[in-house]
Amino acid sequence: xxxxxxxxxxxxxxxxxxxxxxxxxxxxxxxxxxxxxxxxxxxxxxxxxxxxxxxxxxxxxxxxxxxxxxxxxxxxxxxxxxxxxx
Length: 86
Prior knowledge:
The protein is mostly helical. The chain has one domain (3-85): Monooxygenase. Helix content is 85%, strand content 0%. The protein contains four helices and no strands. Helix 1 (3-19) packs parallel to helix 4 and helix 3 (39-59) runs antiparallel to helix 4. The N and C termini lie far apart (46 Å).
C-alpha cells in the first residue's frame, strides 16, 4: 500500500472509532445524566487521547490528528457532563 492508501485507511478507521463516541455524547447531553458512566474510564480515554494527539503531531499523521482531535472534543464534553450532572 502506498502512503496515501495507508493514510486513507487510517482516516476511515479514525472516523468509525471516534464516531462511536457520538451516540454516548448525545445521550448524556439529552438526558442530562451521566450517573452510570465511569469517571475513571473517561479520564483514561481523555489522557490517552491527548497522548495520541502529541504522537500524531510528532509523526505528522493526519489520521491520528483527525481522530484524536474529534475524540478530544467528544470525551471532554462527556467529562464535563459527568462532572456537571454526575
